[in-house]
Amino acid sequence: MKIEDTTNRAFELDNNTVAANGSIARTEVFRHKETRKFYLAPVYVSEVMAGVRPSKFITANKPFDKWINITEEYEFLYSLFPNDIIKIKMPREKTSKTHTKEQFTWTEGIFYYKGVDTGTAAIKIIDHKDSFEDRVGTNGLKLFDKFQVDPLGNLTKVNKEKSYVV
């Protein structure tokens, strides 16, 4: 029996067996030092367990071997985990739909980060009321900040995090 799988990445279990990378433990956010564009590097659970750092950025509509390599031209900003709070500003107005199919336009807002799509390099976001969800490409964002929330609900911008040592 043959099983076809469209997994973009796999890791070796032993000399005869490979497995799909599985879920993403976190997403590292970088910014190009000159162009100021944002780039995303997924960190899979298998990479965390193996002690391997990400080496490539998600490149939309390309297989892993064609993704952009992480070099000194990029600065690490922070790691994103599901349900982290982010503030984004779009380069132009965006139209989204609520769960009740109402359309609205926006250019910036505070959202919960829900995950990343390694096929399109877009992040999945929801609002605080969970009234809508959308996917947003990050490369051309005008603003892409991460926030921490204290027990009283106050938001504090994360200026820069240290990369997790694997």
Question: How would you describe this structure to a colleague?
Answer:
With 166 residues, the chain is mainly β. The chain has two domains: 10-79, no CATH class; 82-158. The chain has one helix spanning 45-50, and strands spanning 10-14, 17-20, 24-32, 38-44, 56-57, 68-69, 74-80, 85-97, 103-117, 122-126, 133-137, 143-149, 155-158. The strands form four sheets. It has a six-stranded antiparallel sheet with strand order 11-10-9-8-12-13, with no helix packed on it. A three-stranded antiparallel sheet has the order 4-3-7. A two-stranded antiparallel ribbon has the order 1-2. A hairpin with a 6-residue loop joins strand 10 and strand 11 (133-137). The radius of gyration is 17 Å and the shape is globular. The chain starts with 9 loop residues before the first strand and ends in an 8-residue tail after the last strand. The mean pLDDT is 87.
